Amino acid sequence: MSGHGSPTLDIDGSGLDVVIVAGSWHDEITNGLIAGATRTLESAGASFSLVRVPGSFELPVVAKAALEAGADAVVALGVIIRGGTPHFEYVSAAATDGLTRVALDTGKPVGFGVLTLDDEQQGLDRAGLPGSKEDKGREAAEAAIATARVLRAL
Questions:
Q1: CA 132, 134, 138: angle at the middle one, nearest 5?
Q2: What confidence tens digit (pLDDT) does each residue in 35-84 have?
Q3: Which residue numbers are catalytic?
Q4: Which 3-state string (H, E, C) describes 30-62?
Q5: Torsion of the alpha carbons at 80, 51, 27 and 124, rounded to the nearest 10
Q6: Dist. CA 139–CA 144, nearest whole Å
C-alpha cells in the first residue's frame, strides 16, 4: 500500500480560498474522498466550496475555471476503476494530463486526488472511510494547501 514515507506537512490554510472539484462516479468512495478533503480544509482554516462534475474527465476544465475565477487552489477528486476496455487508460490519462496542464497554465496548485484503481476495494482502502488504510482526500487537500503556501512565499 502506498503512503509509506509520506511527508508530514504543516498545514495552515488561513487566507486561502480552495475549491474541491469532485466527480460523481462511485459515490461511496468519492464521498469518502470529499469528507477527507473537507475535514482537512476545515481544520486548516481555509475557506472552501465544493463543485461536483459528471466524472473524472470533466475535472480539468472545471478546475481551470475555478482557478481563473480567483481560487487559490483546487483539490481534484475522482474515481476511475479499470474495466475490460481501453476506456480506463484514456480517461485516466486525460484527467492526469489535463490537471497537470491546469496547474502549469494557471500557476496555481491542483491537489491530485484522482484514484485509478483495478477494483472497488482498492478505492475503499484509500477513501478515508472507517476501516480505510489511507485518506487520499486528506492528502490531496494537504498538498494543495502546502503548495499554495510555497507559491505565496516565492
A1: 115
A2: 999 999 999 999 999 999 999 999 999 999 999 999 999 999 999 999 88
A3: 87
A4: HHHHHHHHHHHHHHHCCEEEEEECCCHHHHHHH
A5: 60
A6: 9
